[in-house]
Amino acid sequence: MVVGAPRVQVGAAVIRFLRRLWPLLPVRERRKVRATAAGAVLLALLDAAGVGLVFPLVQIATAEAGEPLTGPAGWLSDLTGISDQGRLALVVAATVVVVFIAKGLLALALLRANIRSALNCETATADRLVRGYLAAPLTFHLARNSAELQRTLTESLRRVFQEGLATCVPAIGDRVVLATVGLGLAVVAPLEAVAGGLWFAALIWFYRRATTRRVTASSAALVEESRQAIQRVQQALASVREVTISGRAPVVGRSIVELREQAAGRQRILALNEQLPRYYLEIGLIGGAAVVSAVAFQTRESSEALAVLGLFLAAGLRLLPSLNRSVNAEGKARVAMPNLAVIEADLAATPDPDSIDREDRDPLPEREPFRDLTLTGVGFAYPDRSPVLRGVDVQVGAGETVGVVGGSGAGKSTLIGIILGLLEPTGGDVSVNGRALADCRRSWQSRLGYVPQTVAVLDASVRENVAFGYPLGEIDDDRVRSALAAARLDDFVARLPDGIRTELGEDAARMSGGQRQRLGLARALYDQPEVLVLDEATSALDGETERRILETLEELRGRVTMIIVSHRHSTIRSADRVLHLADGRVCGEGSYQELLASDGAFARLAQLGEDR
User: What single-letter DSSP state applies at residue 440?
Assistant: First the structure.
C-alpha cells in the first residue's frame, strides 16, 4: 500500500504503480495527493448515497396508493416521519437531486486539484532530473545519448504523471463506489447481486487476460522506440547538408518513417486499450441485465422483480463509468511502469542536486590570486576501459602559456577534463594553490574560461550567447562588446542588423565555423578569467582569423594563464612550455624549439601540423 495514502483496495497494477511512484513525489505534493484521494472517497460515498436512494424512490413510485411501504422505502418513511407517499417521493427525489449536484461540484473541484497536483509533481520531477543531469559527472554524459535524456524529460514524464498519476488517484474513489454500491445491492437483493457480480467479474477477468500482456509489451517497447525516433530525427537534421548532397534524403526519411510506423502499431494497441473498456462494458451491461432479470423473475413477484431490475439498471448505468475508469486506470498504470523505471534509473544514476554541497570544503580565497596548478602521478580510466592517463606530472604557474599536443587517443581531452574539474582522477593528486582541487572545485571553476572544440550556439541574441547563463537583466553590454572585440568578432557583429541584440537563430546558420569558435572565445573572456583553457579552439579558423586570435592571446599573455590544446602547431609555437602526450603519458616537455630538437615523435607531429 502507498505510504501514507488511504488504505483502499484498488487494482494490483494501480497499487504497484502508486507504491513505486510515492517516494518520487515531493513531500508537499504527497499531502495534496492524499487530500485528493480522500476527496475521491468522499465523492464515491456521495455517489453511492445517490444510487442507494434510487431503489426506495422506485419502490415508492411503484407502490399501490395506501399500501404500506416496506424495505428501504419503509425505513425512510419511519426515519422522516412522512407517511404520505407523494410527499415522501418528493423529499427523496429532492434529496437525490441535491446529492448529485453536490457530487458534481465536488467532482469538478477534485478534477482541478488532481490535474494540478499531477502537473506539479511532473514539474518537480523534471526539475530534479534536469538539475541532476547538469550536476552529473562527465562520465555519465559520455555514456548516454542525449535522445535518451530528451525522451525521459518528455515522453516518460508525461506517461507517468499526466496519464498515470492523474488517472490512478481518482481510481481509488471509483473502486470505493463499486464496493459501496455492490454492498448495498447485496443487502437489498443478495441473489441478484451475486449473479451480477459473478458476471462482471468474469468479464473483467477475460478482458485482463486478453489485453495485459500486449499492453505491457507495447509500452515497454515504446520507451526504446521513442528514444530511437528522437535520435534519428536529431541525426537527420544535424546532417541535412550531407544528406541532401549525397542524395540519401529518401533513405534517411524512410528510416524515420519505418520507425514511426512500428511505433504507431504499438500506439494503436494502447489507444484501443484506452477506449475498448467503455464499449466492452456497455455490451456486458446488457448481458448483466439479462442475468439479473432471470434471477429476479425466478425468485420474486413481478412487481418486486421489476423494482429490483430497475435498481440494478440504474446502478449499472451509474457504475459503468466508474468501472470503465477503474479498468482504464490499470491500463494506464501498466503503460506508465516502464517509463517510471526509466525515471527511477536516471534519478539513481545522477546526484541529488539538493544534497550536493554547494560550498567548497576548502575554497580558494576570493582575493587570493591564482599561483599554480599541480598534477602529481595522475591517472584516469573510464569505466570498463583501460587507463587513458598514467602517472601524469604537470605544473602550470601563474601567467604561463602551456601548449598540449599529441596524437588521437593520447589523452589530451581527458587531461583537460581533469584540469577543468569535470573528471575525477582515478589515481594521483590535483591541487590548486596547494589545495586539493576536489575541495575547491567550484571556486576553481569560477576562475576558468573554457573554449571547447565545438561551441554550442543558443537560438538567442549575440549578447545572450556571449553572457551565457546570466539573467537578461544582469548582462553587461559593455563587457559583451569588449569580449567580442578581444575575440576579433566585433566587425561581424557590427554588420548585423541589430548589433549585439541580433538573434542568431537555431544552430547559428548565419555564422561560419570560425565565427562560432570566436563566439566561444568571447564567451570565455566575458567572465574575465584568470585561467583560459582552449581545446582545439583554432581548429576551424582560417589563417588570417587564426593570426588575429593569436594576437589576442598574445595580448593576454602574462596576465592570464593559458592552457592550449591544438593540432595546429602554429597556435602553440610561442607557448612558454609544450607538453607532448602519447599513450596517456607526458613523453616530452619543454619549449617548442626544445621539443623539436629532442623529441622525434613531436617533430613528426609538428610536420603534420604544418601540413594542415
Answer: S
Q: Are the CB atoms for 55 and 311 separated by under 8 Å?
A: yes
Q: What are phi and psi of 379, to 5 degrees?
A: -130, 155
C-alpha–C-alpha distance, residues 165 and 121, integer Å: 9
User: 267 is written with which cell numbers?
Assistant: 500506439
**DSSP line for 383-420:** TTS--SEEEEEEEEETT-EEEEEE-TTSSHHHHHHHHT
Cα-flanking dihedrals φ and ψ of residue 566, to 5°? -160, 140
Strand partners, 126: none
Q: What is the pLDDT of residues 81-91, one digit of tens each?
A: 777 777 778 88
The domains found in the chain, sorted by start residue, are 12-349 (1.20.1560.10), 372-611 (3.40.50.300)
- Residue 611: pLDDT band with limits 50, 70, 90: very low
Grid cell, residue 140, equals: 555519465
Contact 457, 496 (CB under 8 A): no
Distance between CA 527 and CA 520 in Å, rounded? Answer: 12
Work out the angle between the directed axes of helices 302-349 and 12-21 (0-180°, nearest 10).
30
Asked if residues 525 and 483 have their Cβ atoms less than 8 Å apart, the reply is yes
Of 63 and 402, which is predicted with more confidence? 402
Residues facing residue 582 across a β-bridge: 585
What three-state secondary structure class fits 425?
coil
- Helix 513-526 to helix 543-556 angle, to the nearest 10 degrees? 10
> Could you tell me the strand order of the sheet in which 389-397 lies?
389-397, 372-380, 427-432, 435-436
CA distances to 484, 488, 568, 605 from 552, in Å: 11, 8, 17, 25
Query: Which strands form 401-406's sheet, in the order they lie side by side?
Result: 448-451, 531-535, 561-565, 401-406, 577-582, 585-590
Tell me the pairing of strands 389-397 and 372-380: antiparallel
Identify the CA nearest to 92 among candidates 76, 71, 70: 76
pLDDT band at 356 (very low <50, low <70, confident <90, very high): low
Phi, psi of 248 (to 5 degrees): -100, 10
With the C-alpha atoms ordered 182, 183, 184, 189, is the resulting torsion angle positive or negative? positive
Handedness of CA 17, 19, 20, 21 (dihedral sign): positive
Grid cell digits, residue 574? 610561442
Distances (CA, A) of 407 to 309, 411, 497: 86, 9, 43
